[in-house]
Specification:
It is built from 44 helices and 16 strands. With 1006 residues, the chain is of the alpha/beta class. Strand 1, helix 1 and strand 2 form a beta-alpha-beta unit.
Length: 1006
């Protein structure tokens, strides 16, 4: 015989937690009220589990409540997420079935629910009257059902949800796809409840299509049970508003004449007195003109909810709640309900393209759901405009987006025509934050006539912006969008948001398309001139980067690439330079590519500006590792400029410097060194030692020295460059800080770890202040500091910094960027020795594959990172494979950089260790002995790499049984380690404990 289910409430009057979907709040409020009248405390728990949280975990959270949990089952309860029935069945079996005494349920739907809901033994409340529904709830909770058990409570509670208010009129049908907006609904409810008698007015305001009407309708359905009268009025026109209010009189049962003016007065008087009903809710929908209808808003004990684009209702004793676009989670949830065939990522992609505007999400998702077109294709289609052919209008949003905005623009044109001119002008800036103050900075006499009076007259300007904001066509720049208030004759414009406005992308598109050709021709030139005048002219000055960051998004929309104005060309080059220095590489590549295509047509293939552009374009391409592509560009420029202007021409020298950098990236270090040498000599001859271009060339020659393994020569050049830049520029200039990275790197590579760490630590602090934490140069400084800390033995600090830098670089530049690859190589080496060997293996695989794809076989970076990978294989026991890989890496490195290069010597140290492991003892000893000879010649007897080879050689001699020579070699090496690094340095301690040394390849940035 099956066990009898124990009543949930049998243990006593503990608090009952009611779990409900927000859509079903009226049921939760009514059930809670009936329980509270019987002395049971009630806790309300709105159910909306995060999609990323497992359903089982969310259900277990309900068990944290001390008493029984009453679940209100409905279609909405199971749709939130959304979750499949299979997911629900698994979760219910796992969490609810073992706890039958903790869960109870009622169902308020006739739809099919997940089969496992049977474990809840839900009481069915559908098609029941109030008394029977209450009896079933009490029975399911194990509570007495006799009416005498209920104490007398004369207060009025919520209405039974299946009953409608006594008076109900004009309310739109409920949107069953309504999503989110919980904070707004709660804020509106509490604002109305907290208002005193006669002051319960709340206005929901925001731009067209944001869902104000839908929000008001949902408020009515969620909280309507608390009212006896709910009356909905279309309030876009005064005459309509008066008529709908007058129709309320007979609905209230008032005795009046047939004239609607008399009925209007009677209805408003009844609402004011609260007779025959004091609990009333009046909704005024679309009340965009408060000056026309504010006197019709009734006072009294009830509440008024208004929807409007216009926030000026705040001047008429209304509380204001701005309705923004959806947040991204709401957008995704809504799209997936509207278009179930879309995945989460596709819904997110659509929401991103439409900037989370509810009306557009509804109409586009509806179209997509009935189409087999991909989201990518559809978004591309929308770029040509949102017309009737690419949207599906639903009953919830019955007016097409384009139609609604066309009506609004016509209205603006009739009332304040200059506001339309200003709006059209704005569309030649990028959508989003629009710095219209840049236009006001132009001399009025340079503007078209229709803008001249507007810009030159503060009153007209304020009126035009005020009207656009009043209709929510634009808004003042909000959080994260800088709003600048300008001044006229030194006095601020009181009450006027001057000057940075915000326009939604789709509004921008519609206004731009609906523009006469003459306006287009005049306004685009105005914005171009405004951008040119806003150019600070010094993209290398980090203090001016915020101004460039403001300008660059607008270049595309002002179509600056089609201008033949030299000032416009200078603006583009400066912006491209800024993008390179600030790390906006992808944006710079896009701008440079489009500019090169456009200018070749406009100016000709060999115009001087083409070579200026080629130089800056190559810089951003080189920054992402496209060295082969940049070599083609720079070599063409070098050959043309040498033939046209001669080898000592400054433009030719600049292009040659770019070519040298390309060759460094391709691993052709000797060629790059030769070019860099004569470039520096030429600059010194032409400009002298202290010119910034000479110092740049000196910096580049130092890089070539370092890549060739000549660390002392690199150190000396970088020292001189750093000192000169500190004097010529300033200590905090970006190039000075870059020289600090270079100098500290050379110190570290020479084994002067304490000096390197001291300089780099201070430099990192300044980098973060001057350039910002996410700037690529700052990340390079932090990475070098991590290496300094690691070599100094501070492994804890180094490990944390390695991880932080890699994560930041992946976020800022992406996983395939050369800087990210460099940081990943270091992270893999650190993880191999001090972290997770599986993580080290995965990262190393990615790094090797990335360098092969970026640089090709035969590049020293490929050989070096394969040498690192061999050490990982050694650590996981793949000794034979590791041995083969390190021998191949050693051969490749020898071939591409030579047998005396420090990288080759490092590979040799690792190869000798693998030979020792596979018992090629003679080969190991011979290799380490040869490595000592070469390292001593190249780096010196006490360089850390030489010392590592000497310690390794002692181990090889010991393995051969030559203990006497081994002891002698080891003792001498230990003495030099103590003298060079100190007795307690990690390398010294490891050598003393006879831990065989290894070498890590560090791929540098060129």
């Amino acid at each position: 015989m099956p066990a009898v289910r124990k009543p949930v409430g049998a243990t006593g009057p503990q608090a009952v937690t009611i779990s409900f979907a927000g859509f079903n709040r009226p049921w939760a409020a009514w059930i809670g009220d009936r329980l509270e009248r019987r002395g049971l405390p009630v806790v309300y728990q709105r159910w909306d589990p995060p999609v990323e949280t497992p359903l089982e975990e969310s259900l277990r959270d309900l068990l944290l409540a001390p008493g029984p949990v009453l679940v209100i089952l409905s279609d909405w309860y199971f749709q939130l997420g959304p979750r499949t029935h299979d997911e629900w069945n698994r979760a219910l079996r796992e969490v609810v079935a073992p706890e039958p005494d903790r869960f109870a349920a009622v169902t308020i739907t006739t739809s099919a629910l997940p089969g496992a809901t049977a474990v809840l033994a839900a009481a069915d409340l559908t098609t029941l009257g109030q008394e029977e529904a209450e009896r079933r709830i009490l029975t399911r909770l194990g509570l007495p059902t006799d009416t005498h058990a209920e104490p007398v409570d004369t207060r009025r509670g919520p209405r039974y949800p299946a009953d409608t208010p006594d008076v109900w009129g004009g309310v739109p049908r409920r949107n069953t796809r309504f999503t989110g907006r919980e904070p707004l609904l709660n804020d509106a409810y509490h604002a109305l409840q907290a208002a005193g008698s006669g002051a319960g007015v709340v206005t929901l305001h925001g731009m067209s299509g944001v869902g104000k009407t839908q929000l008001a309708a949902e408020y009515v359905y969620r909280f309507g049970a608390e009212y006896d009268v709910v009356w909905w009025v279309s309030a876009d026109k005064r005459v309509t508003c008066r008529q709908k209010l007058a129709e309320l009189a007979p609905a209230l049962g008032l005795s009046t004449g047939v004239e609607y003016g008399e009925r209007l007065r009677a209805a408003r008087d009844a609402l004011r007195r609260g007779d025959p009903y004091s609990r009333w809710l009046l909704v005024l929908d679309g009340a965009d003109e408060p000056d026309q209808i504010w006197d019709l808003v009734p006072t009294g004990p009830g509440h008024v909810l208004i929807t409007a684009r216009n926030p000026e209702w705040g001047e008429h004793n209304s509380a204001l709640l701005e309705v923004p676009v959806y947040d991204r989670e709401e957008s995704v949830a809504f799209v997936r309900r509207r278009a179930p065939r879309l995945t989460h990522s596709e819904a997110d992609q659509l929401a991103e393209a439409l900037e989370d505007l509810p009306l557009l999400l509804d109409q586009t998702a509806g179209w997509l759901n009935d189409s087999d077109m991909s989201v990518d294709e559809y978004i591309e289609l929308l770029k040509d405009g949102i017309d009737q052919d690419v949207v599906r209008v639903s009953a919830d949003f019955p007016l097409a987006f384009q139609t609604g905005w066309s009506i609004l623009l016509n209205k603006l044109r009739e009332t304040v025509p200059e506001s339309v001119d200003l709006l059209r002008l704005c569309t030649f800036f990028a959508p989003g934050a629009i710095p219209v103050r840049l236009v006001r900075d132009l001399p009025p006499d340079t503007l078209p006539e229709k803008l001249r009076g507007l810009v030159d007259d503060p009153v007209r300007w304020a009126r035009a912006i005020g009207k656009l904001r009043q209709y929510a066509v634009v808004r003042a720049a909000g959080v994260g969008e800088r709003e600048v208030h300008d001044s006229v004759n030194g006095e601020g414009l009181a009450g006027v948001a001057g000057d940075t406005l915000y326009m939604h992308r789709m509004v921008h598109q519609i206004v731009h398309q609906d523009m006469p050709s003459q306006d287009h021709k005049e306004f685009i030139e105005v914005v171009r001139r405004a951008l040119v005048q806003a150019d600070p002219g010094r993209p290398t000055d980090t203090r001016l980067w915020p101004r460039y960051a403001e300008i660059t998004p607008h270049l595309k929309w002002a179509d600056v690439l089609q201008s033949t104005d030299p000032a416009m060309h200078t603006l583009i080059l400066n912006c491209l330079r800024y993008m390179y220095l600030s790390g906006e590489y992808r944006a710079g590549i896009n701008l440079g590519r489009r500019a090169l295509e456009a200018w070749r047509v406009l100016l000709g293939e060999t115009h001087p500006r083409i070579w200026d552009l080629s130089y800056h374009y190559a810089n951003v391409m080189r920054a992402v590792g496209d060295y082969a592509g940049t070599e083609v560009i720079e070599r063409a420029a070098v050959e043309h400029l040498r033939a046209e202007k001669g080898p000592k021409d400054l433009e030719h020298l600049r292009a040659a410097g770019g070519l040298a950098a390309d060759l460094r990236g391709l691993g052709r270090y000797e060629e790059a060194f030769e070019i860099s040498g004569w470039i520096l000599a030429s600059y010194r001859e032409l400009l002298g030692e202290q010119d910034s271009r000479t110092l740049n060339a000196q910096n580049n020659l130092a890089i070539s020295h370092r890549l060739l393994g000549r660390y002392n020569e690199s150190l000396e050049l970088n020292r001189r460059t750093l000192e000169a830049r500190r004097q010529l520029l300033r200590p905090r200039h970006a190039w000075t800080l870059f020289s600090e990275i270079n100098y500290a790197t050379d110190l570290r590579l020479l084994g002067r770890y304490s000096e390197a760490e001291s300089l780099q630590s201070q430099s990192v602090r300044v980098h973060r202040i001057v350039l910002g934490r996410d700037n690529p140069q700052t990340l390079r400084a932090e990475h070098n500091l991590a290496l300094c800390l690691y070599r100094s033995g501070e492994r804890g600090k180094a490990g944390a910094l390695f991880t932080q830098v890699l994560e930041s670089c992946e976020r800022v530049l992406g996983e395939q960027d050369p800087l990210t690859m460099m940081f990943a190589a270091s992270q893999s080496c650190f993880a191999r020795e001090h972290g997770d060997i599986d993580q080290a293996m995965a990262i190393s695989d990615h790094v090797v594959d990335g360098y092969v794809a970026m640089l090709g076989e035969g590049h020293p970076y490929v050989a070096g990172t394969r040498a690192n990978h061999a050490l990982i294989l050694r650590n996981v026991g793949e000794r034979d494979q590791a041995h083969v890989l390190i021998e191949d890496a050693l051969a490749d490195m020898t071939r591409v950089v030579g047998e005396n290069h420090p990288w080759t010597l490092g590979c040799a140290i690792n190869a000798s260790a693998l030979r020792n492991i596979v018992r090629d003892l003679e080969g190991a000893a011979a290799l380490t002995n040869d490595t000592i000879t070469r390292a001593t010649e190249v780096l010196g007897r006490t360089h850390p790499l030489t010392l590592s080879a000497r310690i390794a050689y002692a181990a090889d001699l010991r393995a051969l049984g030559d203990a006497q020579r081994a002891e002698k070699a080891e003792g001498e090496a230990l003495d030099d380690l103590v003298a060079t690094l100190g007795a307690q340095h990690v390398h010294t301690v490891a050598a003393r404990s006879r831990t065989r040394p290894y070498w890590d390849f560090e791929p540098p940035i060129i």
